[in-house]
Amino acid sequence: SFPKRVTLLGSTGSIGTQALDVIRSQPGKFTVTALSAHSNAELLIQQAQEFRPAAVVIGDEAKYKTVKAALASQPETEVLAGSAALADVAGRDDVDVVLTAMVGYAGLLPTVRAIRAGKTIALANKETLVVAGQLITELVKEYGVGLYPVDSEHSAIFQCLVGEEQNLIEKIILTASGGPFRGRSREQLAQVTKAQALKHPNWDMGAKITIDSASLMNKGLEVIEAKWLFGLRNEQIDVVVHPQSIIHSLVQFEDGSLKAQLGLPDMKLPIQYALGYPQRLPNTFPRFSFLDYPQLTFEQADTTAFRNLALAFEAMGRAGNAPCVLNAANEIAVAAFLRDEIGFLQMSDVVETSLARVSYLAAPSLDDYVQTDHETRRIAQELVGQV
Ligand code: NDP
Ligand code: MG
């Protein structure tokens, strides 16, 4: 029922700011209980002044004073700092939905806290399900909460599944744009620059996911995300490259019928669907026309050139803490690539070697995941240093 009280973690990012656009465009449907940023104090302050939430969290404790001072005339907004505060606002009483729009492993603990507090989760932070998909899905069952995908591919599948029985899924097909380097060989990929990698053909997103899209790690993370969201066996997940990003993904059922969800590449629609679920809310998002896209094309993903996709399938197959290792090593590798410390192909080298080196755990606890993440970051950072 509306209005829904929303906590928006990562409100200053690409998903976060678009989620606030959605909220603005639906007067009376949503109220904002809490907002969080990592270091962008300026935008967080501006958002707090507009939405007047009960709390804001600035991750970077050095910026606490700045935010506190700027919001001094707004006593209804409590100002908090640090990562523990992020988990605290995720579990507040006066919240219905927590939208996890922060990037990376940092999403895990606040999401766990929100589930334990009985909150509905609108999940943008795919890393949470990659790191600890089994644990998260078990918690979701135990606490009886809804967990609705924001990621466009998963939203597509979720929408295709309305009115269907999950146990009649034969397989899903995740579409991938192929990114800016689609069609390049390994030799060519060795030469690509950070500036080229940061230019995605169809989507405007945060830096980390943009690099992941260029390396196809994003699709690998999405394969693992889909496994847990939809309770699939590994063999039930396929990937097809579809450069126009119009078909957002497909589900095939056991009678052979294939359902797809289509639309222009615009994250506002899946964000709104996750926030509004089970209700589909009217909106004036730009409409898709077939006449603007006379050709929708499909090709196989090149896992030889884009090794990350193969590594993600491998990690999913090994299960246990392997996907957690994959994720942590990738976060270190992407950060190093963004600092110009390693080349494009070396990102998958760091991931592959980390997967071989970090001790394997078949049935990790939450503490084990925290440990694995920590150990992997240390090893991956060492590998970066040796390049
Ligand atoms: P951005 O980099 O644009 O934004 C990230 C947000 O998280 C910012 O608010 C940032 O704060 C905050 N943040 C950064 N580091 C931390 C940290 N260590 N702890 C807490 N908060 C932090 O990312 P996106 O919005 O692009 O992506 C967010 C998530 O959504 C990712 O998991 C991504 O995979 C997923 N996603 C994104 C899509 C997109 O179109 N952008 C599509 C599908 C999924 P600050 O601004 O202060 O740095
Ligand atoms: Mg996606």
From TrEMBL:
<keyword id="KW-0464">Manganese</keyword>
<feature type="binding site">
    <location>
        <position position="177"/>
    </location>
    <ligand>
        <name>1-deoxy-D-xylulose 5-phosphate</name>
    </ligand>
</feature>
<feature type="binding site">
    <location>
        <position position="13"/>
    </location>
    <ligand>
        <name>NADPH</name>
    </ligand>
</feature>
<feature type="binding site">
    <location>
        <position position="152"/>
    </location>
    <ligand>
        <name>1-deoxy-D-xylulose 5-phosphate</name>
    </ligand>
</feature>
<comment type="pathway">
    <text>Isoprenoid biosynthesis; isopentenyl diphosphate biosynthesis via DXP pathway; isopentenyl diphosphate from 1-deoxy-D-xylulose 5-phosphate: step 1/6.</text>
</comment>
<feature type="binding site">
    <location>
        <position position="125"/>
    </location>
    <ligand>
        <name>NADPH</name>
    </ligand>
</feature>
<dbReference type="Pfam" id="PF13288">
    <property type="entry name" value="DXPR_C"/>
</dbReference>
<keyword id="KW-0479">Metal-binding</keyword>
<dbReference type="InterPro" id="IPR013512">
    <property type="entry name" value="DXP_reductoisomerase_N"/>
</dbReference>
<feature type="binding site">
    <location>
        <position position="151"/>
    </location>
    <ligand>
        <name>Mn(2+)</name>
    </ligand>
</feature>
<dbReference type="GO" id="GO:0070402">
    <property type="term" value="F:NADPH binding"/>
</dbReference>
<feature type="binding site">
    <location>
        <position position="213"/>
    </location>
    <ligand>
        <name>1-deoxy-D-xylulose 5-phosphate</name>
    </ligand>
</feature>
<comment type="function">
    <text>Catalyzes the NADPH-dependent rearrangement and reduction of 1-deoxy-D-xylulose-5-phosphate (DXP) to 2-C-methyl-D-erythritol 4-phosphate (MEP).</text>
</comment>
<keyword id="KW-0413">Isomerase</keyword>
<feature type="binding site">
    <location>
        <position position="153"/>
    </location>
    <ligand>
        <name>1-deoxy-D-xylulose 5-phosphate</name>
    </ligand>
</feature>
<keyword id="KW-0414">Isoprene biosynthesis</keyword>
<protein>
    <recommendedName>
        <fullName>1-deoxy-D-xylulose 5-phosphate reductoisomerase</fullName>
        <ecNumber>1.1.1.267</ecNumber>
    </recommendedName>
</protein>
<comment type="similarity">
    <text>Belongs to the DXR family.</text>
</comment>
<dbReference type="InterPro" id="IPR026877">
    <property type="entry name" value="DXPR_C"/>
</dbReference>
<feature type="binding site">
    <location>
        <position position="200"/>
    </location>
    <ligand>
        <name>1-deoxy-D-xylulose 5-phosphate</name>
    </ligand>
</feature>
<feature type="domain" description="DXP reductoisomerase C-terminal">
    <location>
        <begin position="262"/>
        <end position="378"/>
    </location>
</feature>
<feature type="binding site">
    <location>
        <position position="222"/>
    </location>
    <ligand>
        <name>Mn(2+)</name>
    </ligand>
</feature>
<dbReference type="InterPro" id="IPR003821">
    <property type="entry name" value="DXP_reductoisomerase"/>
</dbReference>
<dbReference type="InterPro" id="IPR013644">
    <property type="entry name" value="DXP_reductoisomerase_C"/>
</dbReference>
<keyword id="KW-0521">NADP</keyword>
<dbReference type="GO" id="GO:0030145">
    <property type="term" value="F:manganese ion binding"/>
</dbReference>
<dbReference type="GO" id="GO:0030604">
    <property type="term" value="F:1-deoxy-D-xylulose-5-phosphate reductoisomerase activity"/>
</dbReference>
<dbReference type="GO" id="GO:0016853">
    <property type="term" value="F:isomerase activity"/>
</dbReference>
<feature type="binding site">
    <location>
        <position position="219"/>
    </location>
    <ligand>
        <name>1-deoxy-D-xylulose 5-phosphate</name>
    </ligand>
</feature>
<feature type="binding site">
    <location>
        <position position="153"/>
    </location>
    <ligand>
        <name>Mn(2+)</name>
    </ligand>
</feature>
<feature type="binding site">
    <location>
        <position position="12"/>
    </location>
    <ligand>
        <name>NADPH</name>
    </ligand>
</feature>
<feature type="binding site">
    <location>
        <position position="206"/>
    </location>
    <ligand>
        <name>NADPH</name>
    </ligand>
</feature>
<feature type="binding site">
    <location>
        <position position="218"/>
    </location>
    <ligand>
        <name>1-deoxy-D-xylulose 5-phosphate</name>
    </ligand>
</feature>
<keyword id="KW-0560">Oxidoreductase</keyword>
<keyword id="KW-0460">Magnesium</keyword>
<dbReference type="InterPro" id="IPR036291">
    <property type="entry name" value="NAD(P)-bd_dom_sf"/>
</dbReference>
<dbReference type="GO" id="GO:0051484">
    <property type="term" value="P:isopentenyl diphosphate biosynthetic process, methylerythritol 4-phosphate pathway involved in terpenoid biosynthetic process"/>
</dbReference>
<feature type="domain" description="1-deoxy-D-xylulose 5-phosphate reductoisomerase C-terminal">
    <location>
        <begin position="147"/>
        <end position="230"/>
    </location>
</feature>
<feature type="binding site">
    <location>
        <position position="126"/>
    </location>
    <ligand>
        <name>1-deoxy-D-xylulose 5-phosphate</name>
    </ligand>
</feature>
<feature type="domain" description="1-deoxy-D-xylulose 5-phosphate reductoisomerase N-terminal">
    <location>
        <begin position="6"/>
        <end position="133"/>
    </location>
</feature>
<feature type="binding site">
    <location>
        <position position="222"/>
    </location>
    <ligand>
        <name>1-deoxy-D-xylulose 5-phosphate</name>
    </ligand>
</feature>
<dbReference type="Pfam" id="PF08436">
    <property type="entry name" value="DXP_redisom_C"/>
</dbReference>
